[in-house]
Amino acid sequence: MRLTIALGGNAILKPGQEGTAAEQMNNVYQSCLQIGELAALGHEIVITHGNGPQVGNILLQQAAANNIPALPLDFCGAQTQGFIGYMIQNSLLNVFKDKKINIHSTSVVTQVLVDQNDSAFDKPSKPVGPFFDKKHAQKQEREKGEKWIEDSGRGWRRVVPSPRPLKIMEKDLINDLIENNRIVIAAGGGGIPVVEKENELKGVEAVIDKDRAGCILAQNTASDFFLILTDVDNVMINYGTAEEEALGQISIKEIEKHLAEGQFGKGSMAPKVESAVKFVRDGGEKAVITSLNKVIDAVKGEAGTIIYKD
Ligand SMILES: Nc1ncnc2c1ncn2[C@@H]1O[C@H](COP(=O)(O)OP(=O)(O)O)[C@@H](O)[C@H]1O
Ligand SMILES: NC(=O)OP(=O)(O)O
Protein backbone atom coordinates (compact mmCIF):
# COMPACT_ATOMS: atom_id res chain seq x y z
CA MET A 1 0.00 0.00 0.00
CA ARG A 2 1.11 3.56 -0.60
CA LEU A 3 0.96 5.68 2.55
CA THR A 4 1.29 9.43 2.94
CA ILE A 5 2.38 10.16 6.50
CA ALA A 6 2.06 13.64 7.98
CA LEU A 7 4.33 14.06 11.03
CA GLY A 8 3.27 16.75 13.48
CA GLY A 9 5.71 19.56 14.18
CA ASN A 10 4.93 19.14 17.88
CA ALA A 11 6.08 15.50 17.67
CA ILE A 12 9.44 16.70 16.31
CA LEU A 13 9.79 19.34 19.00
CA LYS A 14 7.57 18.50 21.95
CA PRO A 15 5.95 21.25 24.04
CA GLY A 16 8.23 21.96 27.00
CA GLN A 17 11.43 20.87 25.25
CA GLU A 18 14.08 23.54 24.64
CA GLY A 19 14.47 22.72 20.96
CA THR A 20 18.07 21.54 20.89
CA ALA A 21 19.32 19.65 17.86
CA ALA A 22 19.74 16.51 19.99
CA GLU A 23 16.14 16.64 21.25
CA GLN A 24 14.70 17.10 17.78
CA MET A 25 16.95 14.46 16.18
CA ASN A 26 15.98 11.97 18.88
CA ASN A 27 12.26 12.65 18.37
CA VAL A 28 12.62 12.27 14.60
CA TYR A 29 14.62 9.06 15.05
CA GLN A 30 11.80 7.60 17.18
CA SER A 31 9.32 8.49 14.39
CA CYS A 32 11.59 6.90 11.80
CA LEU A 33 11.75 3.64 13.79
CA GLN A 34 7.99 3.32 13.20
CA ILE A 35 8.31 4.38 9.57
CA GLY A 36 11.04 1.75 9.19
CA GLU A 37 8.59 -0.90 10.46
CA LEU A 38 6.08 0.17 7.81
CA ALA A 39 8.75 0.06 5.08
CA ALA A 40 9.79 -3.41 6.28
CA LEU A 41 6.16 -4.51 5.84
CA GLY A 42 6.48 -3.49 2.17
CA HIS A 43 4.51 -0.24 2.20
CA GLU A 44 5.51 2.62 -0.11
CA ILE A 45 5.95 5.80 1.92
CA VAL A 46 5.58 9.50 1.26
CA ILE A 47 6.33 11.82 4.18
CA THR A 48 5.36 15.34 5.02
CA HIS A 49 5.98 17.14 8.29
CA GLY A 50 4.94 20.13 10.33
CA ASN A 51 7.17 23.07 11.20
CA GLY A 52 5.10 25.23 13.56
CA PRO A 53 7.43 25.01 16.58
CA GLN A 54 10.56 25.22 14.39
CA VAL A 55 9.56 28.16 12.19
CA GLY A 56 8.46 30.07 15.30
CA ASN A 57 11.86 29.44 16.87
CA ILE A 58 13.59 30.82 13.76
CA LEU A 59 11.48 33.98 14.08
CA LEU A 60 12.59 34.31 17.72
CA GLN A 61 16.24 33.72 16.77
CA GLN A 62 15.96 36.44 14.13
CA ALA A 63 14.35 38.85 16.56
CA ALA A 64 17.25 38.26 18.99
CA ALA A 65 19.96 38.86 16.39
CA ASN A 66 21.39 42.35 15.97
CA ASN A 67 22.63 43.73 12.64
CA ILE A 68 21.65 40.67 10.62
CA PRO A 69 18.65 41.18 8.35
CA ALA A 70 15.60 39.12 9.28
CA LEU A 71 14.45 36.87 6.46
CA PRO A 72 10.78 36.67 5.48
CA LEU A 73 8.55 33.79 6.57
CA ASP A 74 8.75 31.94 3.22
CA PHE A 75 12.56 31.80 3.63
CA CYS A 76 12.14 30.59 7.23
CA GLY A 77 9.76 27.87 6.00
CA ALA A 78 12.32 26.81 3.38
CA GLN A 79 14.95 26.58 6.13
CA THR A 80 12.74 24.24 8.14
CA GLN A 81 12.16 21.99 5.10
CA GLY A 82 15.95 21.68 4.84
CA PHE A 83 16.81 20.83 8.41
CA ILE A 84 13.78 18.71 9.21
CA GLY A 85 14.28 16.86 5.90
CA TYR A 86 17.88 16.27 6.90
CA MET A 87 16.85 14.83 10.28
CA ILE A 88 14.38 12.45 8.60
CA GLN A 89 16.87 11.36 5.89
CA ASN A 90 19.61 10.82 8.46
CA SER A 91 17.34 8.84 10.80
CA LEU A 92 15.92 6.70 7.99
CA LEU A 93 19.44 5.86 6.76
CA ASN A 94 20.38 4.68 10.25
CA VAL A 95 17.13 2.75 10.77
CA PHE A 96 17.32 1.08 7.34
CA LYS A 97 20.98 0.16 7.80
CA ASP A 98 20.03 -1.77 10.95
CA LYS A 99 17.10 -3.43 9.21
CA LYS A 100 19.13 -4.09 6.04
CA ILE A 101 16.50 -2.29 3.91
CA ASN A 102 17.86 -0.83 0.69
CA ILE A 103 15.61 2.19 0.11
CA HIS A 104 16.83 5.78 -0.10
CA SER A 105 14.94 8.86 0.99
CA THR A 106 15.20 12.39 -0.28
CA SER A 107 13.66 15.74 0.61
CA VAL A 108 12.16 17.97 -2.03
CA VAL A 109 12.15 21.71 -1.33
CA THR A 110 8.50 22.19 -2.19
CA GLN A 111 6.58 25.30 -3.20
CA VAL A 112 2.83 25.33 -2.74
CA LEU A 113 0.59 27.72 -4.59
CA VAL A 114 -1.86 29.83 -2.57
CA ASP A 115 -4.33 32.56 -3.58
CA GLN A 116 -2.99 36.07 -2.95
CA ASN A 117 -6.57 37.14 -2.14
CA ASP A 118 -7.08 34.41 0.46
CA SER A 119 -8.81 36.06 3.42
CA ALA A 120 -6.41 34.18 5.73
CA PHE A 121 -3.79 36.88 5.05
CA ASP A 122 -5.94 39.28 7.11
CA LYS A 123 -6.73 36.77 9.88
CA PRO A 124 -3.62 35.08 11.31
CA SER A 125 -4.58 31.63 12.65
CA LYS A 126 -1.57 29.27 12.48
CA PRO A 127 0.20 28.82 15.84
CA VAL A 128 4.01 28.89 15.61
CA GLY A 129 6.84 28.69 18.13
CA PRO A 130 6.83 27.85 21.83
CA PHE A 131 3.98 28.23 24.31
CA PHE A 132 4.04 31.29 26.59
CA ASP A 133 1.78 32.71 29.29
CA LYS A 134 -0.99 35.23 28.64
CA LYS A 135 1.04 38.14 30.01
CA HIS A 136 3.83 37.56 27.49
CA ALA A 137 1.27 37.19 24.67
CA GLN A 138 -0.40 40.48 25.55
CA LYS A 139 2.97 42.26 25.70
CA GLN A 140 3.94 41.02 22.23
CA GLU A 141 0.56 42.08 20.84
CA ARG A 142 0.91 45.52 22.40
CA GLU A 143 4.56 46.18 21.57
CA LYS A 144 5.13 44.24 18.33
CA GLY A 145 1.66 44.24 16.77
CA GLU A 146 1.70 40.44 16.68
CA LYS A 147 -1.40 38.27 17.03
CA TRP A 148 -1.49 35.56 19.74
CA ILE A 149 -4.05 32.90 20.70
CA GLU A 150 -4.59 30.36 23.46
CA ASP A 151 -3.80 26.96 21.89
CA SER A 152 -6.01 24.07 23.10
CA GLY A 153 -5.37 24.60 26.82
CA ARG A 154 -1.58 24.30 26.33
CA GLY A 155 -0.62 27.99 26.59
CA TRP A 156 -0.40 31.04 24.34
CA ARG A 157 1.26 31.03 20.91
CA ARG A 158 1.90 33.55 18.19
CA VAL A 159 -0.26 33.04 15.09
CA VAL A 160 0.59 33.86 11.47
CA PRO A 161 -1.50 33.82 8.26
CA SER A 162 -2.26 30.35 6.90
CA PRO A 163 -3.79 30.44 3.41
CA ARG A 164 -5.29 27.30 1.82
CA PRO A 165 -2.91 25.25 -0.32
CA LEU A 166 -4.04 24.98 -3.95
CA LYS A 167 -1.32 23.16 -5.85
CA ILE A 168 2.02 21.46 -5.24
CA MET A 169 4.41 22.94 -7.79
CA GLU A 170 6.93 20.04 -7.65
CA LYS A 171 4.25 17.32 -8.02
CA ASP A 172 5.75 15.66 -11.13
CA LEU A 173 9.24 15.55 -9.66
CA ILE A 174 7.85 13.97 -6.46
CA ASN A 175 6.09 11.25 -8.48
CA ASP A 176 9.23 10.56 -10.55
CA LEU A 177 11.13 9.94 -7.33
CA ILE A 178 8.40 7.65 -5.94
CA GLU A 179 8.40 5.64 -9.18
CA ASN A 180 12.15 5.21 -8.66
CA ASN A 181 11.56 3.55 -5.28
CA ARG A 182 12.51 6.60 -3.20
CA ILE A 183 10.87 7.62 0.05
CA VAL A 184 10.02 11.24 -0.65
CA ILE A 185 9.80 13.94 2.02
CA ALA A 186 7.80 16.80 0.51
CA ALA A 187 5.60 19.82 1.24
CA GLY A 188 7.27 20.12 4.66
CA GLY A 189 5.69 22.76 6.87
CA GLY A 190 2.78 22.80 4.43
CA GLY A 191 5.14 23.89 1.64
CA ILE A 192 6.71 27.25 0.91
CA PRO A 193 3.73 29.49 0.11
CA VAL A 194 3.94 31.15 -3.30
CA VAL A 195 1.45 33.23 -5.29
CA GLU A 196 1.22 33.80 -9.04
CA LYS A 197 1.91 37.45 -9.89
CA GLU A 198 2.41 38.75 -13.42
CA ASN A 199 3.19 35.23 -14.62
CA GLU A 200 5.80 34.65 -11.93
CA LEU A 201 5.80 32.73 -8.66
CA LYS A 202 6.58 34.85 -5.61
CA GLY A 203 7.02 33.73 -2.00
CA VAL A 204 4.62 35.16 0.57
CA GLU A 205 4.72 35.54 4.36
CA ALA A 206 2.61 32.70 5.70
CA VAL A 207 2.73 29.15 7.05
CA ILE A 208 0.44 26.67 5.31
CA ASP A 209 -1.22 24.00 7.41
CA LYS A 210 0.74 20.81 6.75
CA ASP A 211 -2.32 18.56 7.09
CA ARG A 212 -4.14 20.47 4.34
CA ALA A 213 -1.06 20.36 2.09
CA GLY A 214 -0.53 16.72 3.16
CA CYS A 215 -3.99 15.87 1.84
CA ILE A 216 -3.07 17.29 -1.60
CA LEU A 217 0.26 15.42 -1.44
CA ALA A 218 -1.58 12.16 -0.66
CA GLN A 219 -3.97 12.77 -3.56
CA ASN A 220 -1.24 13.85 -6.01
CA THR A 221 0.77 10.71 -5.23
CA ALA A 222 -2.26 8.39 -5.49
CA SER A 223 -1.78 7.23 -1.90
CA ASP A 224 -4.17 4.61 -0.50
CA PHE A 225 -3.91 5.85 3.07
CA PHE A 226 -3.45 9.31 4.56
CA LEU A 227 -2.02 9.08 8.07
CA ILE A 228 -1.93 12.16 10.26
CA LEU A 229 0.39 11.51 13.20
CA THR A 230 0.21 13.83 16.17
CA ASP A 231 0.54 13.68 19.96
CA VAL A 232 -2.88 12.18 20.77
CA ASP A 233 -3.94 8.57 20.05
CA ASN A 234 -7.43 9.63 18.96
CA VAL A 235 -9.54 12.59 18.09
CA MET A 236 -11.80 13.32 21.08
CA ILE A 237 -15.14 14.83 21.68
CA ASN A 238 -15.51 16.98 24.79
CA TYR A 239 -11.71 17.22 24.69
CA GLY A 240 -10.11 18.28 27.96
CA THR A 241 -13.27 17.74 30.03
CA ALA A 242 -14.44 14.95 32.34
CA GLU A 243 -16.74 13.76 29.51
CA GLU A 244 -13.84 13.37 27.05
CA GLU A 245 -14.45 10.48 24.63
CA ALA A 246 -12.13 9.00 21.99
CA LEU A 247 -13.45 8.54 18.45
CA GLY A 248 -12.56 5.23 16.76
CA GLN A 249 -13.87 4.21 13.32
CA ILE A 250 -16.16 7.00 12.20
CA SER A 251 -18.03 8.03 9.06
CA ILE A 252 -17.57 11.38 7.32
CA LYS A 253 -21.13 12.34 8.23
CA GLU A 254 -20.64 11.66 11.93
CA ILE A 255 -17.30 13.41 12.31
CA GLU A 256 -18.58 16.42 10.33
CA LYS A 257 -21.40 16.71 12.85
CA HIS A 258 -18.80 17.01 15.65
CA LEU A 259 -16.82 19.47 13.51
CA ALA A 260 -19.88 21.69 13.10
CA GLU A 261 -20.41 21.61 16.89
CA GLY A 262 -16.91 23.10 17.32
CA GLN A 263 -15.51 19.98 19.07
CA PHE A 264 -12.05 20.32 17.51
CA GLY A 265 -9.36 22.96 18.22
CA LYS A 266 -9.37 25.60 15.46
CA GLY A 267 -5.66 25.85 14.67
CA SER A 268 -4.90 22.25 15.72
CA MET A 269 -7.38 19.35 15.43
CA ALA A 270 -10.01 20.94 13.15
CA PRO A 271 -7.68 21.22 10.09
CA LYS A 272 -6.59 17.60 10.64
CA VAL A 273 -10.19 16.39 10.65
CA GLU A 274 -11.08 18.54 7.62
CA SER A 275 -8.04 17.26 5.70
CA ALA A 276 -8.77 13.63 6.56
CA VAL A 277 -12.40 14.05 5.51
CA LYS A 278 -11.40 15.70 2.21
CA PHE A 279 -9.00 12.84 1.37
CA VAL A 280 -11.72 10.19 1.85
CA ARG A 281 -14.54 12.22 0.29
CA ASP A 282 -12.46 12.80 -2.84
CA GLY A 283 -11.90 9.05 -3.30
CA GLY A 284 -9.02 8.10 -0.96
CA GLU A 285 -9.47 4.73 0.76
CA LYS A 286 -8.95 5.67 4.37
CA ALA A 287 -7.60 8.47 6.55
CA VAL A 288 -6.35 8.03 10.10
CA ILE A 289 -5.54 10.50 12.86
CA THR A 290 -3.45 8.97 15.62
CA SER A 291 -0.16 9.12 17.49
CA LEU A 292 3.18 7.81 16.35
CA ASN A 293 3.04 4.96 18.88
CA LYS A 294 -0.15 3.62 17.34
CA VAL A 295 0.77 3.95 13.68
CA ILE A 296 1.42 0.25 12.96
CA ASP A 297 -1.91 -0.77 14.50
CA ALA A 298 -3.64 2.14 12.76
CA VAL A 299 -2.49 0.90 9.33
CA LYS A 300 -4.03 -2.49 10.23
CA GLY A 301 -7.26 -0.68 11.14
CA GLU A 302 -6.85 -1.43 14.87
CA ALA A 303 -6.09 1.99 16.38
CA GLY A 304 -6.61 5.70 15.98
CA THR A 305 -9.54 7.68 14.61
CA ILE A 306 -10.22 6.11 11.23
CA ILE A 307 -12.44 8.05 8.87
CA TYR A 308 -14.35 6.13 6.23
CA LYS A 309 -16.86 7.02 3.52
CA ASP A 310 -20.54 7.18 4.64
N1 LIG B 1 -11.05 17.41 19.99
C1 LIG B 1 -9.73 17.20 20.12
N2 LIG B 1 -9.25 15.94 20.24
C2 LIG B 1 -7.92 15.73 20.40
N3 LIG B 1 -7.00 16.71 20.41
C3 LIG B 1 -7.42 17.98 20.26
C4 LIG B 1 -8.80 18.28 20.11
N4 LIG B 1 -8.93 19.62 19.97
C5 LIG B 1 -7.71 20.14 20.04
N5 LIG B 1 -6.79 19.17 20.21
C6 LIG B 1 -5.35 19.42 20.32
O1 LIG B 1 -4.76 19.18 19.05
C7 LIG B 1 -3.40 18.87 19.30
C8 LIG B 1 -2.78 18.33 18.04
O2 LIG B 1 -2.70 19.38 17.10
P1 LIG B 1 -1.31 20.16 16.80
O3 LIG B 1 -0.70 20.62 18.07
O4 LIG B 1 -1.59 21.15 15.74
O5 LIG B 1 -0.51 18.93 16.29
P2 LIG B 1 0.77 18.67 15.39
O6 LIG B 1 1.81 19.68 15.74
O7 LIG B 1 1.10 17.28 15.80
O8 LIG B 1 0.32 18.76 13.97
C9 LIG B 1 -3.48 17.93 20.48
O9 LIG B 1 -2.28 17.89 21.21
C10 LIG B 1 -4.60 18.54 21.31
O10 LIG B 1 -4.08 19.40 22.31
N1 LIG C 1 2.97 23.92 9.06
C1 LIG C 1 2.29 23.20 10.02
O1 LIG C 1 1.12 22.87 9.90
O2 LIG C 1 3.04 22.85 11.13
P1 LIG C 1 2.56 22.11 12.46
O3 LIG C 1 2.00 20.78 12.06
O4 LIG C 1 3.82 21.97 13.25
O5 LIG C 1 1.56 22.97 13.12
Automatic annotation (TrEMBL):
Pfam families hit by this protein: AA_kinase
GO molecular function: ATP binding; carbamate kinase activity
InterPro entries linked: AceGlu_kinase-like_sf (IPR036393), Asp/Glu/Uridylate_kinase (IPR001048), Carb_kinase (IPR003964), Shikimate_kinase_CS (IPR023000)
Domain of life: Bacteria
Gene3D superfamilies assigned to the protein according to its UniProt record, in alphabetical order: Acetylglutamate kinase-like
An example Gene Ontology CC term for this record: cytosol
Pathway per the UniProt entry: Metabolic intermediate metabolism; carbamoyl phosphate degradation; CO(2) and NH(3) from carbamoyl phosphate: step 1/1
GO BP annotations, alphabetical order: L-arginine deiminase pathway
Residue ranges constituting the Aspartate/glutamate/uridylate kinase domain according to the UniProt record: 2-291
Keywords recorded for this protein, A-Z: Arginine metabolism, ATP-binding, Kinase, Nucleotide-binding, Transferase
Catalytic activity: hydrogencarbonate + NH4(+) + ATP = carbamoyl phosphate + ADP + H2O + H(+)
PROSITE patterns per record: SHIKIMATE_KINASE (PS01128)
Family per similarity comment: Belongs to the carbamate kinase family.
Entries under PANTHER family matching the protein: CARBAMATE KINASE (PTHR30409), CARBAMATE KINASE-RELATED (PTHR30409:SF1)
Identification of the protein by name: Carbamate kinase
Source species of the chain: Halanaerobium kushneri
Taxonomic lineage: Bacteria, Bacillati, Bacillota, Clostridia, Halanaerobiales
